Amino acid sequence: MSLHPNDIQRRGRFAGALVTLSLLLLASGFFRAQVLESARYQLSSEKNRLREVPIPAARGMIYDRHGDVIAENVPGYAVSILAPGADSLRATLERLSTIIELAPGDIESAVRRLRRDPNRPTVVLADASFDQVSVLEEHRTEFPSLIIEATPKRRYPDGPTVSAFVGYTAEINESELNSAEYKNYKSGQQIGRSGLEQQYEKELRGTEGSRYVEVDARGRVVRDAGSRPDREATAAPSLQTNIDLDLQRFIASYLGDSLVGGVVAIEPQTGAVLAIHSSPAYDPNRFIGGIPSGYYRELTTDPRRPLYNKAMQGRYPPASTFKLATAAIALEAGLVDFDTRMQVPCTGGYTYGSRYFRCWDKKGHGAVTLSQAIAKSCDSYFYQLGLRMTLSKMLAGGVQLKFRDKSGIDLPNETTPQWPYAVEYFNKRYGAKGWTNAVTLNLSIGQGENTQTILNMARFYTALATDGWAARPEVVKRNPERTKILNLTPAQLAGLRDAMADVVSGRGTAGSAAIQGVVLAGKTGTAQNETGKDHAWFVGFAPKDDPKIVVAVMLWQGEHGYAAARIASKVVEHYLKRPAIQPLNVEGDD
Amino acid sequence: MIKRVFADYPLVIIALLLSAYGIAIVYSAGQTDVIQPAVASAYKRQLGWFAVALVGAWVLSRASVRLLEWVSWPAYLVALALLVVTLIFGSGAGTAASMKGWLTIGGVRLGQPAELAKVTVVLMLAKVLAVRRDAPRSLLELWKPAVVVLVPWLLVMAQPDLGTGMVFVGIFFAMLFWAGVSAPLLLLAASPAVSLLLSFSTGLWGAWFLILIAIVLWYKPYVVEGVVLIVTNVAMGVLAPIVWEKLAPHQKSRLLVFLDPSEDPKASGYHVIQSKIAIGSGGWLGKGFTLGTQKRGSFLPAQHTDFVFAVVGEELGFLGVSIALALFLLLFLRVIRVASRANDGFSSLVAFGLLGSWLVHVIENVGMTLNLMPITGIPLPFFSYGGSFMLACWLAIGILVRISSEGRGEADALPIGLRR
Question: Quick one: residue A261, left, alpha or beta (phi over 0 = left, psi -120 to 50 = alpha)?
């Protein structure tokens, strides 16, 4: 090679320049990444390292009208896993299943949760027991991706007592997550199911907060990285209901576990639902965090159907409690007044065409007035009254009295009652010649193709208890809504109330339900039941001249109306005669 | 044999600074949230190797350059033999577990013969090139140096170790340049490789081929040469797709990921993406020594070996990167100076060959952390954890000190060590 100094110097300079240039080029690459584009990479680095872990917020408390607690939150534990992928999650859960018991479907449902929200910790146990948590804590180091978190857990201090209206909370399911209604929800979150919890989900749901944990490349939780100041978990404001928990407790304990049926108590002027109960009840507390399969089987196989809400889902023939509707329609049409007697006196029944329609009392009631017919519940009288007003008028009157409409209570899953919309209903159903006017007789005494919920009957009686305006039942006080359904004069309304007061007297069908010092007005009913013993009804209100409470009671296979009337009487007595309840300070104990 | 040695203090100090910097980063690489025992203790072993390497460098600086020249042939043959043995009995390691780069006896990894091969190729090339009075002027005259590099290159590529293969190519061209081979000839020598790279696009390859013909016409090589040149270029253009098919899957994916890291974000692309995130998130001043979150959380792969420079970028920021690159630049400029002042052709070529080797290592390794280069898994001198490479780097320093000492300009070197 040439070692001439000039050559060497030239090549040396060239090599030096080339080396300097290439390192400067490298440096410029770093300048670009570290200075110009640093913000982007910093974000990626934070995303790599930090996982947002939701802090569940407490649901709003639910109080009764006096500030007594219906639903509250107690500390619980949720166990979730931060997994980078489905395979890793499955592997972790399989190892986990050797330590704590997991149900067979748990692993796959957890994988589905992860697929839906890969960036959220996957909830494995929404409501872990203290035992499970202590076992997991012992094995903490083996499961570094495990997050055990204190989480507010719903509790209903009165349990079964409030089961007819409160509902429960549960983890949101797949189909709910897919629906537009729950688009702001994430898997693993709790939602209200049935009852108030479902109806007022928007109000009761707290605002979820966030904190960060730092993880490594394998998803192991390395340390806590603090909470997000802009996203603190905030509990929802509390919900105050119209429920009178003391009365609710009284009703629930009175029915106990042996009587089957439903009770509704409403304030007639406002529609405020004081109590709503369905018996037998279930314990909503056991639904929290997943219903134990044994308990669920018990509930679904019980022939008395505890999960079926008899106060607002069950439809039963209203029987004689409906006679007030028949009477009101006839009065409004001007067909009768309170002293009108029918052509044929009651002889224990009434012959129409070739058929003999029995009155409930074989002895017969003789020639009774409308007032007496109500008090004694004379079927023969109402058969003739129905015939007098004609079927089409009766059907139109029933529609006007809202016997085809839901009561409009602020609870989900209310059943729509059945009442034929017009005569065409029968023509369509049976053909023009397939039915006879006998349906008129049946409908006039509350039988036939007329099934009502206990709640809807209570709503109808709020109109009888007041000036003809029916109040929409409200569990939570929103905007009371009343509809005028009875176009009767005050005198006519007073006449009906007097007749109903006679029902609960020595002259009526429910004399044994009378209350010392309080005039209870109402109407018994005994609904024919093809599959067993008759159902017992009573709907009424008290005090007669200034009603404070409307009570509707239906006892499944209670045989006779006076059985229901006695319960209603106890409810009214308890409500009107108990010492005043001092309201608790709801605002102060948040 | 023993004579007065003048230590090239600037060279030694720069190398010491780089080693200290490197060992500190290897220490930091072990500081992860979930401790990886082998990585956490790596810095201790690296310190041990550093001590061994210093002794080795000192010993080698005692050895005359003539001794090195004399030992070139046997050393070269030993290196080739070891490469063959490795190819048959070798084992993989780390991120390149499928490669046969390690010489293992009874499960104990003895080192990577490729490191020895790099040094011996430099010595051998220097020997071959230095005997000529003038620089080669035709391609035919390049056959000897070409064979010297081609044999170990083929053995290394068979492992397959693309990175070391690139280093051989770098050494080859750097030394031809330093020997005075003219630029057009270098270009012609490189033309088959360029053809190979461009063959993936017919249009690009066509354009390159026209340029090549122009150069050939202007340079007027022998007819045989010209024909061979054109034929090899055409052959490369045709062969490339076949060679591509022959590449190991990990090499293919590394090359593909180099073109677009997001193509495979979970596997090969993951390394590059995480490395870029680590470096980019470092900003001006970094996240602080040992505090890099990408590294701590094990997001950064091979943080003590191939991607050690990403730790520098993440924890010490652009400042730390600039200091490291400046130290490398100083080292390279100093080595150029040593090469320029060497008092014989062999010494000068050896010095420049070592520079070529380091330059490829640094550009390839550092460039790879930012996806400016494909991932090949070659280490960063003085930084990457690894005993044989640390030793090799310091042996090179030892040789350079000796060359510097024997060269011109002793006036600015101070005497050390044994006196006569």
Answer: left
Residue B183 touches partner A, C-beta closer than 8 Å = no
> A402-434: buried (b, 16+ CB within 10 Å) or exposed (e) per residue?
bbbebbbbbbbebbebebbeebeebeeeeeeee
DSSP string, A346-404: BSSEEEETTEEEEPS-TT--BS-BHHHHHHHT-HHHHHHHHHHH-HHHHHHHHHHTTTT
pLDDT grade for B412, boundaries at 50, 70 and 90: very low
pLDDT band of A100, cuts 50, 70, 90: confident
Chain A environment of B333 (Cβ under 8 Å): 16, 19-20
For residue A7, list chain B residues with Cβ-Cβ distance below 8 A: 180
Measured between beta carbons, which residues in chain B are less than 8 angstroms from residue A216?
A: 32-34, 296-299
Cβ(B174)–Cβ(A22) under 8 Å? no
What residues of chain A have any CB closer than 8 angstroms to a CB in chain B? 1-3, 7-9, 11-12, 15-16, 19-20, 22-23, 26-27, 29-31, 33-35, 37-38, 40-42, 44-46, 48-49, 144, 214-218, 220, 222-223
In whole angstroms, give the CA distance from residue B297 to residue B294: 5
What is the per-residue pLDDT across B46-61, written as a single tens digit (0 to 9) for each? 999 999 999 999 999 9
Which distant-in-sequence residues (6+ apart) come within 8 Å of A452 by Cβ?
A315, A316, A317, A318, A322, A403, A417, A418, A419
Q: Which two tokens stand for residue A501?
A: 């007061």
Q: In terms of CA atoms, which chain A residue is nearest residue B346?
A: A1
Work out whether strand B108-111 and strand B103-105 pair parallel, antiparallel, or are unpaired. antiparallel
Q: Cβ–Cβ of A20/B333 closer than 8 Å?
A: yes
Question: Which residue is associated with the tokens 């016409």?
Answer: B217
In the stretch 22-41 of chain B, residues with CB closer than 8 A to chain A read: 32-34
Contact call for residues A56 and A208 (beta carbons, < 8 A)? yes
Q: Taking each helix axis from N to C terminus, what angle separates B308-341 and B345-369, rounded to the nearest 10 degrees?
A: 160
Residues of B in contact with A20 (CB under 8 A): 329, 333
Question: Residue B218 has what pLDDT?
Answer: 82
Helices within B199-343 (DSSP H only) = 202-219, 223-246, 249-259, 268-282, 293-296, 308-341
Tell me how far apart the alpha carbons of residues A126 and A169 are, in angstroms, rounded to a whole number: 11
| Helix (H), strand (E) at residue B348 | helix B345-369
Put simply, the answer to whether A45 touches B281 (Cβ < 8 Å) is yes
- Partner residue opposite B277 with nearest CB, options A15, A29, A45: A45
> Do B56 and B398 touch, CB atoms closer than 8 A?
yes
- CA distance to partner chain B, nearest, from residue A88 (Å): 14
The verdict on B278 touching A (C-beta cutoff 8 Å) is yes
Q: Could you give the C-alpha distances from A395 to A332, A370, A380, A483, B366, in angstroms and in order?
A: 14, 20, 19, 19, 91
Query: Hey, CA dihedral for B370, B374, B376, B378, is it positive or negative?
Result: negative
What is the distance, to the nearest Å, from the Cα of residue A571 to the centroid of all Cα atoms in its chain?
23
Chain A CB contacts of B336 below 8 Å: 12, 15-16, 19
Does pTM surpass 0.90? no
Residue B67: other Cβ atoms inside 10 A: 13
